[in-house]
Amino acid sequence: MVGLVLVVAGVLCLGLYQLYVSITTKKKLPDGAKPLPGPMNLPFIGRVHDVPGEGSWLKFHEWGQKYGPIYTMDMFGSTHIWISSESVATDLLARRSTIYSDRPVIPNLPDNRYSGNYLALAGRNDTWKRQRKLAHGLMSVSAAQDLHAYPTRERDRLLWLMATQPAEYREWIEQFTSRTVARLSWGSAAPADTLRVTTQGLLETISPAGALPNVVSFLAGLPRWASPWKRREAARHAVEEKLFTRCVASVREGMEGGGARPSFVQTFLSDRSPGGKYADVEVWDAMYTVGQMAIAGALTIGSPIQTFLLAMLHFPELPMVRAVVKEVLRWRPPVPTGIPHAVEKDDVYEGYFIPKGATIHALEWSITRDPVTYPDPEIFNPARWLEESYPTYRAPLTTYPNLANYSQFGFGRRTCQGVSIVEQDLFLTMGGLAWAMDITPKRRPDGSAVPVHWNDFTPLLIAKPAAFEFDVKIRKGRETVLRQMHEEAASGDDLEEQAFNGQATKEGMFAKEASGLSEVEGQYHDFEKGDAHMQHTQC
Asked: Which residues form a coiled coil (predicted)?
């Protein structure tokens, strides 16, 4: 009872302190500047009560239509600025990138800006610049190695599983993404299962709908014993660190034995001798840079593949695969609210004042629904990338549409470095699925079609379609080919996993009792079942 009283008192004190800070630090407008438009904020809470726990981007889009292409609103003392126009996003996040390339502090992950553990979420500092340069170098050098075979191998495995057990499609797609990035990062698919657990845990940690302190920011001040969110993240991070450590050790062991497969880590370790390209780079830096590259890939690639299946059920006549890939990302953006930026100093744009420290959101849901650029934006229409009658037609790019400079991958200095990997994975999987099988609405015994939702997506930062049902029929003459492709893709998997997991068990790397994996893994499976508990906390 005493503990509960202390927690309640602490929460009240933190709330009052937050209110005091928000009032005393409110900035005056510079001469000649005007405030951004936006909904009227209530004292202390701002407009947080209006933001739904699911589909929040729809509300932000609604406000954008009402208040214009850039507007502001507060949430518990934090200023958030929403951009609904690609031209405005380009003006600020790209052309003024010297002050708009920072990342905000994530209340539930307060070390995201400085620790070096979260490349995509890091602040604009020396650690981020160093790791970003390292990531670019590893991907550039590794592109010349035999890494392109990995996505193809995992695609072949995926096609057979999808063709024979389509009801488990979400599982097979998540396996494809995690296994592919594990091979690219460490040369083996063996770490994929643990990577999935820690990846899902991180997504919940950083999402407003995944952890209450990300909405009610003063809750981040609670001590660990009173914060289930801090305890959960500590358990997840322990698993992650042990996983990354073991993966680097496994690659090093393979190199010493002459059996290391090509990977980002293998590229790094091969050039660390005196005078080598990475001689001055710490192993820890590379370990976390590659690990976060793997997490980024595992998080983002699965969503558009699932959305592709959803689109096939509603729009079965699909033209060129490359145009389909691009339209999938536009129609249902994987990150509909965008990854937030932070502005580093006061600024004025088109006469409007933007205060230092504000969180800047390029709202992808709105950007991809601009009716001038994308006529009939809710219609899934790959032809908009192919035909001259559409504003998005760009010759000669339209001959073979690609994802270069696409708003989905960020702006300015925060543009995703792995666009080519994402494009390859999506092209291989979507093209392979269309080649291998017919995907049609599921039929009931009476012949009627089982309804398939149109826009029901999970509420986390990276949104995925809610589960839906469909039927699959392997195309004529392709079953034998698919079986052979699967057998070749699966060869050697057991030996890989035994070697990796056997050594890991021997070293106690993943002991659940020590790492807290059981807690994180249990919450992960709860989320997959839809029983997300805190992940669905209402704003």
From this structure: none
